[in-house]
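assembly run, all chains below
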Amino acid sequence: MPAPSIPAPTFIESASNALVKELRRLAHDSTGYRKAGRVWVEGEHLCSAALARGQRPALAVFSESFWPQAPAEYRQAATKNVVLADALWAAITALESPAHLGFVLELAHGQSLVPDAPTVVLDRLQDAGNVGSIVRSAAAFGFTQIAAVRGTAALWSPKVLRAGMGAHFALRVVEGLDAAALIESLRLPLLVTSSHQGDWLHRATLPWPCAWVLGHEGQGVSPALEQAASQRIRIMQPGGEESLNVAAAAAICLHASAAAAA
Amino acid sequence: MPAPSIPAPTFIESASNALVKELRRLAHDSTGYRKAGRVWVEGEHLCSAALARGQRPALAVFSESFWPQAPAEYRQAATKNVVLADALWAAITALESPAHLGFVLELAHGQSLVPDAPTVVLDRLQDAGNVGSIVRSAAAFGFTQIAAVRGTAALWSPKVLRAGMGAHFALRVVEGLDAAALIESLRLPLLVTSSHQGDWLHRATLPWPCAWVLGHEGQGVSPALEQAASQRIRIMQPGGEESLNVAAAAAICLHASAAAAA
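ok done. output:
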């Protein structure tokens, strides 16, 4: 079997090149991928995670100085290779890593929810770091679907991707959902965390598969989802702090579900 | 009993004022508090958390436009009030909140570890958001002491304080420790998380009180602390992801300890 071929790279050194402009937009505008239908994925960790999950990039991008030393797995990953003058690369990248590489991936359009897949529902979460951390925990604990209600931080934004550490590629990610439609679609027990009522998590019997609903950092879970819940769960906090960080609460709940399913 | 008096404010409008310069340094330099021996705490949430835990600020600072509407609890909190011209305030603040207020708190010097207090050990953690989230979880789950090994992100930096959401004021915080001295000081079972060996957390019997050791985001726990551990603990990850975010792992472990102690 012949070794996979390495597409000859196109070299770009003009800042006004249309592709360079698109890459800048994808890298700096957190919702730019929505209009474009494609997403910018940067750095060795994320790129290798994408390949490991079977992604085939539309485009692989390298800096001029990194290209000669770029590992073959990245050079032969895409149907097209582009090499940017170092100054152009510097204007796109958000990383300090010496591996100057990124992929452009086509996003699947109009994905619908799988009704019975173990799901994490993000109900208008605002902080990109929290969202990325929850995506990562979801993948670690055997959940296979993220369902984000409209108003949640953009799931494929560069910040969320970085915090997700590649977990995006292991999950079905559906965003921009209407809460009522989401409740209609999912055929799973819905669990919500509550600070004042419900069963204590460490004593609760948890169903599997299930959908955990994680709510807005300030306002919590919206009334529609709260009412649709089959179980309300409390996390004990003997220290008496007002509330946990939502990504910390999510990790605790998703781990408890994984342990219950084991 | 007479109502507490409100110190007449000193109004400052010069950017070259020595106090303004100090505030800028405290607000923007993550380790500035170490030299100064005092820390800048900003915004209504953090300031009220500090007061609720009995802190008495050396100084309360307000913007000119916020001062007339500032609640009495903040105006009478410190022995000295300072009002800054709005432009000076804008050069100091990192928040977008309309409550333009901050405290300067004196830091206790040369704190030593309490040998048997439930403790979270931070072993060279780098990310301010992770450190703050862990401080917050520690307080929520009944731990009373943070012991940070030298090389850990500055615990009283503005970023860590923000992510900690006031939990700092509920804890004894000791930083800049040498790992060997720390092991010598603590009279508690030391628990470390491990990705490849040890007891599964969801089946383990956990001691209380205890000290959890959380390691560097990339390198994990250092060999000295690893060797001193009385128990190695694994978190199940059926999704097969390489590792959890350290703040997520911390939340899961600290909650499990709280549940075991209940």
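Chain B has a mean pLDDT of 94.

The longest strand of chain B covers residues 101-106.

not gonna interpret more than that til we talk
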